[in-house]
Amino acid sequence: MTAAPALAEPPLVHRGARRVPRRVTSTRPLWNLAAIVVIWATSLVVVAVWLAGGEAQALQAGGADTLNALGRAAGLASANLLFYQVLLMARVPLFERGFGRDGITRMHRIVGFWSFALFTAHIVLQTLGYAVEAGVNLIAQAWEFVWDYPGMLLATAGTGLLLMVVVTSVRRARSRLRYESWHLLHLYGYLGVGLAIPHMLWTGADFVSSPAATAYWWAMWGATVAAVIVFRLGMPLARSLRHGIHVSTVVPDGRSGVAVRMTGRRLERLHARGGQFFVWRFLDGPGWTRGHPFSLAADPAGGELVISARIVGDGTHRLAALRPGTRVLIEGPYGTMTADERRGGHLLMIGAGAGVAPLVSVLEDAEWAPEEATLLVRDHAEADALRTDAITRLVRERGLRHAPLIGPRARTASPWLPLSHAQWTGPDLIRYVTPRPADTDVFLCGPPPWMAAVRADLRRAGVPAERIHLEAFTV
């Protein structure tokens, strides 16, 4: 077995200065429950609308009636999922606080593919049903739908845009696109949904089956549009103008990164916490409209907002070229991976690459005693390390135990470890750095596949699932 990772020895600290972790009761379970109740309530309304339209009887009739009943069920479910597809990404506080950004991203992907699958099923089943009922072939019926039914030409164009979004969101296709290009294409999903709405509300049998059903659907889509306008446009713009955020300094972070420090008016009123992130737009010229999500790299209680990134693409190269005084538009703060999630006991932070930035900000924000917090940082090369000055300060002033895990990936049962630790198993290493896994809060940030491997080893080491707090830094 290779040697264990070297851990920095904490400085001598007078025991009278021991800092006791705050015992904060997290409100996230209540927000989570409220979000789930809202989703289920609206879903049950959809079922009620379908039943009230006599679709259960039609389902049993056979032939065209059965096909049409199934098609309308798929259409209703797809419509319900479509507006949640928009709401999940509209930065609505109910969902942001209830599910967290990482959870919302996963849900958005799943809901998106299911809504499109059901939308496709709706088109196929309704075309079959009407063709059987009219005794015509499928092509003739599809042509009649598109050209003769109100709103269907718009819906066809919307379907094409939604198909483009789905295709470009497949992992293989997504990996071939720059983030900026993918994000621009993804915005066409809003237009696709907008073009599909007229058909639903003008000719959908279950949408116009009764005044109550019609009012419900108009209200839901109206609320969805309002949420986008308020939470994606209005509030971020008002908040940015109120706080007057601008770049103060741009400095190197390690040998391959950059740190941007920003100041403004009454930043404490943002109520940001270490571990959260903002979507940033820097008003430095063409391309400013593209927002970039970066986590806070320092505790915002210090009176400034700091982000850190490794210089790898257009967005991060742009950060390095920013000038002091550049105005900044923000959306946020978002995310639930804060010190309030901690339940007490040992604190273990495990980050990979740029994932170390939010972990450092959580460490600066949290209260812990010397030797009570450990930071493991995974980098391919020493030159890739970020936030080294802040980490050194935490080691020196607060007794942080720090172990860099440097080198190429080990091809073992614990691929999140470097080759230098290939003879270790992940659970053994975790139990080495935190002898009481069941009494340890773990904060985890890095690429999703890497985090999945770490999470699996944490569970095998005995860390309870509810004490593993994570957020992916990729989009």
The number of helical runs is 15
Largest sheet: 5 strands, parallel
Structural class: alpha/beta
Question: What percent of residues are in strands?
Answer: 5-15%
Strand/helix succession: HHHHHHHHHHEEEEEHEEHEHEHEHE
Can you count the beta strands? 11
User: Would you identify the regions where 5 or more consecutive residues have pLDDT less than 50?
Assistant: 1-24
Fraction of helical residues: 40-55%
Query: What's the gyration radius in Å?
Result: 26 Å
Mean pLDDT: 83
End-to-end separation in angstroms reads 37 Å
Shape: elongated
Query: For the largest beta sheet, what order do the strands appear in spatially?
Result: 9-8-7-10-11
Describe this structure in words.
It is a single chain. The protein is of the alpha/beta class. The protein has helices at 28-52, 55-61, 63-88, 93-134, 138-148, 152-169, 171-175, 179-186, 188-203, 211-243, 314-320, 356-365, 388-398, 426-433, 448-461, and strands at residues 246-253, 257-263, 277-282, 292-295, 305-310, 328-334, 346-352, 373-379, 401-406, 440-445, 468-470. Strand 8 (373-379), helix 13 and strand 9 form a beta-alpha-beta unit. The model is unreliable at 1-24 (pLDDT under 50).
Outline:
This protein is of the alpha/beta class and 475 residues long. The protein contains 15 helices and 11 strands.
Descriptive labels:
475 residues, alpha/beta, 3-stranded antiparallel sheet, 11 strands, 51% helix, elongated, disordered N terminus
Chart the SSEs and their pairings.
Blueprint: H1 28-52, H2 55-61, H3 63-88, H4 93-134, H5 138-148, H6 152-169, H7 171-175, H8 179-186, H9 188-203, H10 211-243, E1 246-253, E2 257-263, E3 277-282, E4 292-295, E5 305-310, H11 314-320, E6 328-334, E7 346-352, H12 356-365, E8 373-379, H13 388-398, E9 401-406, H14 426-433, E10 440-445, H15 448-461, E11 468-470
